[in-house]
Every structure is written in C-alpha cells, then in structure tokens.
C-alpha cells in the first residue's frame, strides 16, 4: 500500500503545511473579506431598496386614502345636488301645475258665463220666435191677429210651466 | 517513471496512489521533494485562489454565474458554521472555509483522469484531522481552563456508571482525529481503487463484455463526485461540531 511508505510522509507533510498555510493566508486576508464586503454591500442595497419600496407603498396608500375621501365627498355632493335639483324641479312643476289648474278654472268659469249669456240670449230669441209663431198660428186659426200682451202672457205661463 | 517497472505496486489498482518525486530536495535532513502529491496541493491552492478571486474580481451587485458560485461556497460554509457553532464561531470561519475548500478541491482534482488524489493518503488526512483536534483541544482549555475536562462528564449520568462513561467519553474524544482522517482517506482510496479495478475490467473484457463495467464506471464516477463533495462537507461539519464542543461546553 503506497499510503504506508513512511519515507513518503515527510514531503507530503511539508508541502501540506506550505500549501495549506498559504491558502489560509490568501483566503483569510484577501479572498474572504472581499466576498464578505460584496455580500454586505448587496444586503445593504437590498435593505435600502426594501425601505424605499415600503415608504413608497405607504405614500401610495395615503394617496389612495386621500383619493377615496375625495371620491366619497364628490359622491356625497353629487347626491345632494341631485336631490336639490329633483326637489326644485318637483316644486316648479307643482307650481306650474297649480297655475295651469287656476287658469283652466278661470277659463272654465268664463266659458260658463259666456254659455249662460248665450243661453239667455237664445232663450229671448226663442221667446220672440214663439210669440211670432203663436201670433201667426192664432191669426191663421182665428183670422185676426191676437193681442200681443195675451200672447206674451200665455208664453210666459207655458215657459214657466215647462220649466218647472 | 522508469522505476515503475521494479515497483511492487505497478499495474495494480494501488499504483495510482504512489508518490513520485519530481524534484528531489532535502532541507535540514528532511525530505522536502516536490512530488506528484505536492503538485496537486499546489494546483488545488491555485485553483481555489483563482476560483474565488477571479469570480469576485468585479464584486458586482448582481453576480455573474462564476461570482455567484464563489459566493455560494462562502455562504454554504457560513451557514453550516452558523447552524452548528453559532455566532461564536465567526473567528474560525476562515480556517473552516480553508479546510473545506482544500479538501473539496483536492478531492475533485482527484476525479480528473491521470491526476493524483492528495486526500487518498492517510498521512495528509491525519495531519489535517490532527490540526483540527489539537486546535480544538487547545481552544477548549484556553476557553474553559481545566473545566474543559467536564466535557467527559455528561449530565444526568448515575454516579455508579460515571467511571465507565468517562472512560468511554475520553476514548471517543481521543479517537476523533482517527475517525475524521480515516473516513476521508478510506472513502477516497476505496473509490479510486474501485474505479481503477472496473477500468481494468473494461480493457480485459474488450468490445464483447466491456460495456457492463463501462456503464458501471460511468455511474460510479457520478457517485464518486458526490462522495468527493460529501466527504469535504463531512470533514468541515465535524470540525464545526468539535469547535462547538470547545466553545460551548454542554
């Protein structure tokens, strides 16, 4: 077994000591500190970035809150305006309706008066025609024109009787 | 290489573990030759250094693939330490990271055909495990003084059983470097030996019967890459657990 050749021990031990010590010195003094600083730098940068991201997120959340408050206020105002407008329009239309009703009533009353006048006039006309006709008929039947007063009295009696 | 023909391990599955002296050297009577093992230690050293420094050379905020791999290795070990040791272990992070990367890269480099697996030698893994063991023990005594010995006296053990338990605890503590080193070494050696044996079967059985061992070898290489990673991880995790024992006496 070549591993048990005692004469070969010394050179292996000597070179092991040399190379291992050198490697230790190189790593401990140069290589490892460089890796450590690089890792630390990266950790710092990442921590800073995370902090910044966190603060930006907070800012964003605040902005969102402000926006939502503004939105809620605007919505409230819009509702108020809509309600007000609705009320105003309702009141206006009520007023117009009332005015229209009043004018219609007035016109109705006027029309009633006109109708009554027309009716009265028509009635007098009817009376005259009736008197004329009655006088005519009587003249034809009797051969002599009747007394106007008697005709009028008869018509009056008939009309009042008919009316009742 | 010429000596290979007289070598008792030549053409055996164990030949891959031989140490070859590329540049024979002596220093103060000690053999410090530059061997194939040394070569792959140096390659691993350079590979880890290049992997981390080239990957991190821009140090970009948004990492490239390579940079994120380098960072991934860092965070992998850092998380492992945080889970097992807690924040008290921060001081030892460079050591555990070095240990993990060294074992990981020597294991992985061993998967390259014709390369040499540094961690397949018990002396290397034992040296690393001893470093951990001695370091942790010294740390424990520095941290807790003689009170560190309370590690061997678990809570809630009946007084009658105490002598037995303490002996068992001491033995288990002392066997830590052995289990730590043998686990890594044995895994690496066994895996590479198996690969070599089945590689030999492919050649022996040729076009007629070699397909089965070939399929097995392909699957086994996948498994070995997993083992190479897993053993580096286990080595580092156990180091963390021992470190935790020394820092936070139960």
Concise summary:
The complex is a heterodimer of chains A (164) and B (250). Chain A is mainly alpha-helical and 164 residues long.
Report on the architecture of this protein:
The complex is a heterodimer of chains A (164) and B (250). By secondary structure, chain A is an all-alpha fold. Chain A has one domain (34-163). Chain A has helices at residues 9-142, 148-163. In chain A, α1 (9-142) runs antiparallel to α2. Chain A starts with 8 loop residues before the first helix and ends with a helix. The model of chain A has no long low-confidence stretch (mean pLDDT 90). With 250 residues, chain B is mostly helical. In chain B, strands 1-4 form a two-stranded antiparallel ribbon. In chain B, a hairpin with a 2-residue loop joins β2 and β3. In chain B, α3 (93-110) packs antiparallel against α7 (211-247), α4 packs antiparallel against α6 and α4 packs parallel to α7 (211-247). Chain B is globular. The A-B interface holds A 1-5, 7-20, 22-24, 26-28, 30-32, 34-39, 41-42, 45 and B 9, 14-15, 17-19, 21, 27, 30-35, 37-38, 41-42, 44-45, 48-49, 52-53, 56, 59-61, 67, 70-71, 74-75, 93-95, 97-98, 101-102, 118, 120-124, 127-128, 185, 189.
